[in-house]
From TrEMBL:
<feature type="compositionally biased region" description="Basic residues">
    <location>
        <begin position="124"/>
        <end position="136"/>
    </location>
</feature>
<keyword id="KW-0472">Membrane</keyword>
<protein>
    <recommendedName>
        <fullName>Putative zinc-finger domain-containing protein</fullName>
    </recommendedName>
</protein>
<dbReference type="GO" id="GO:0016989">
    <property type="term" value="F:sigma factor antagonist activity"/>
</dbReference>
<dbReference type="GO" id="GO:0016020">
    <property type="term" value="C:membrane"/>
</dbReference>
<keyword id="KW-0805">Transcription regulation</keyword>
<dbReference type="InterPro" id="IPR027383">
    <property type="entry name" value="Znf_put"/>
</dbReference>
<feature type="domain" description="Putative zinc-finger">
    <location>
        <begin position="9"/>
        <end position="38"/>
    </location>
</feature>
<dbReference type="InterPro" id="IPR051474">
    <property type="entry name" value="Anti-sigma-K/W_factor"/>
</dbReference>
<dbReference type="InterPro" id="IPR041916">
    <property type="entry name" value="Anti_sigma_zinc_sf"/>
</dbReference>
<dbReference type="Pfam" id="PF13490">
    <property type="entry name" value="zf-HC2"/>
</dbReference>
<keyword id="KW-0812">Transmembrane</keyword>
<keyword id="KW-0804">Transcription</keyword>
<feature type="region of interest" description="Disordered">
    <location>
        <begin position="117"/>
        <end position="152"/>
    </location>
</feature>
<feature type="transmembrane region" description="Helical">
    <location>
        <begin position="89"/>
        <end position="110"/>
    </location>
</feature>
<dbReference type="GO" id="GO:0006417">
    <property type="term" value="P:regulation of translation"/>
</dbReference>
<keyword id="KW-1133">Transmembrane helix</keyword>
Length: 152
């Protein structure tokens, strides 16, 4: 392990004491000059100590309904988080609705107060009269190109 590289796997193996003597000497030499890796070794040793305190039975055998218990716990946490969010946003949304209503009401009152008494009526535009409908020509008046030849 050189001064430029920081190999987390080697540090984990170092903390668990699974390195061979040559690798262990290399990591010791690197740790002597690297503050970052020394801090990581301290953290890894703390994790190792916590994991050693857990009895192996807790990791091997779970109760048959452990999945159900986990789901219930997760559902309860989600519901509590949702309730907390609702408790925060409902008053804010109500206050925003009251503010919008007040602004709109003030706008209507001001608009009516500043509007002229009589409003000039604008004449409606006249429609153009429709052209009369044309009837279809009767066969006697049909153009020559549409006339059917007389049958003999």
């Amino acid at each position: 392990m050189s001064a430029e590289t920081h190999d987390g796997q080697l540090l984990g193996a170092y903390v668990l004491r699974t390195l061979d003597p040559d690798e262990r000497r290399d990591v010791d030499a690197h740790l002597a000059g690297c503050e970052v890796c020394r801090a990581e070794v301290v953290e890894l040793e703390a994790v190792k100590d916590v994991l050693e305190d857990i009895p192996p039975e807790a990791l091997l055998h779970a109760p048959p309904d452990a999945d159900l218990v986990l789901r219930r716990a997760l559902r309860q946490v989600r519901e509590e988080a949702t309730d907390a969010t609702r408790r925060r946003w409902v008053p804010a949304a109500a206050a925003a609705a009251v503010l919008v209503a007040a602004v709109l009401g003030a706008g209507v009152v001001l608009g009516r107060g500043t509007a002229p008494e009589q409003v000039a009526q604008v004449p409606r535009p006249r429609r153009r009269p429709r052209p009369p409908r044309r009837c279809r020509p009767t066969p006697a008046r049909a153009p020559p190109w549409r006339r059917r030849p007389a049958s003999a």
